[in-house]
Amino acid sequence: MGTPQRHPHPPRGGLKLLLFVMCLALALVIGAGSSLSLALPDIATATGANQTQLTWVVNAYALVFAALLLPVGIAADRFGRRSALLLGLALFAAASFTSGLVDDPGGLIALRGVAGVGAAAVMPATLSVLVDAYPEDEQSRAVSVWAGVSGAGALVGILAAGVLLDQFWWGSVQVVYGVAAGLTVIACAAVVPPSNNPDLALDVPGGLLSLGGLAGIVFAVIEGPERGWTSAPVAVGALAGGALLALFVWHELRTHEPMLDVRLFTSPFLATGSLIVFLQFFAAFGFFFLAPQWLQYVHRLDSLETALWLLPVAVGIGPASAAGPALLEKLGPGRLAGLGMALMAMATGALAAQAGGGQALWVFAATLIVFGFGFGLAITPGTTLIIGGLPDDRRTLSAAVNDVTREVGGALGGAVAASVLIAVYAQDLSTGLADSRIPASAEQTAEDGVAQALAISGDLGRDGAQLMSTAVEAFANGYGTALWVATSALLVGAAASVLGARRKTHPTKVARYPAAGQVPCRPTQTREGSQPLSPR
User: Fold this and answer.
1) In angstroms, rounded to a whole number, what is the distance separating the alpha carbons of residues 306 and 295?
2) Pick from 347, 361, 367, 213: which is nearest to 280 by CA?
3) What is the pTM of this model?
4) So what's the pLDDT on residue 233?
């Protein structure tokens, strides 16, 4: 690895402006992953998308983002972070703006995938640009701000979407994101200095194998309930995805300059930390994918009310993240992560138990605070274990492992949650309507999703009320079952945390890392000389 091309630091005022612009770009690509979950009922009504297609609307973005984050981040570091930011934001802006104007589910899904490509170029470049520009003694502060935005971006995206959907149509969310990203392109062109490391090696085969493998697995999980788990497309997707991921591991073991050295996962600290981060975001993304729909369908809230009732999770995350470093020193990463994930599991179990909507929403909000507190406790030790599990001369991979496990966990969590929901909904709807007088054509329409069931219920007279109540109950049961799956995953994570990290990681391991951040700050000096920080 050669010496990166660095440039003089901008003046202090320029650094503050650079930090603002980078955090704005980051907030856009993070918020875009959560904002449309609030609009799914409106999208279903406007475009006729069934529940499976709605799942792809969200997961096409998450999947492409997760799979390309590492290879595109490496390419950005090699060929130029400024260029990557400009191209990525421009692609994200164009795809987001256009997707707000389409009325076809297939076109919307495709454009969301294209936006994911742009996001994969933007997120790693924002962090690399900041650490390349900031003096070493100020890097920790800048990265802490960046990490805070990365953690809060999803909730901000949901709140912004709630405000827009309260006044405009569903596509306004995408149009506003597109316009904001376009303006950010102009700002980046003005304030981002050029920087790159031309000697970095690209692992194109590794990137393609990981993308294909994840795509196959996610396709099978999402399409299984509708097409049938033994259908040819689902079986081929699952087998091809598994084979490609196996080839990815084989390729990474044999290549001289791997994109991700899988041998490092033999470290119990790294493996445990990665599992913690993966399962946290697996559960959290699944919940935030389904909860907005549950609030809108079961409790009949509008978009803005839904967004506001989801905000209490931040009330829990804040104090837990602030207390994280002290608790980490006292308890060690294993026990602290186990405690955090156990609290998350307790919360998702309670949410699953109230899935029928019989309890007051203030109980839901209080449970979200517990969920957020557990999440805030577990996020710091997960990152700490990843850092502590890497040799000192391989710390340049720490942020990459953290980012990739987070995004892959989120993509799979959303896919599994949606798959469980669809399977239970279809089964309960069929059982509930078995002895009804509802026409077969209406029942077939209702099988596409609860939005379709509600849309046609008004045309069926007295039978429409039965269809509506049965569809809503089936959806609530599917939501509850998906949360029980998340609870099980979190309990596995809690046990693995304690067993996999029995020995404390020394607290100085995290002295330079932001307590609440998902992406840690690596040492800028390595054996090859001065290195810019990047999420690779």
Assistant:
1) 6
2) 347
3) 0.79
4) 85
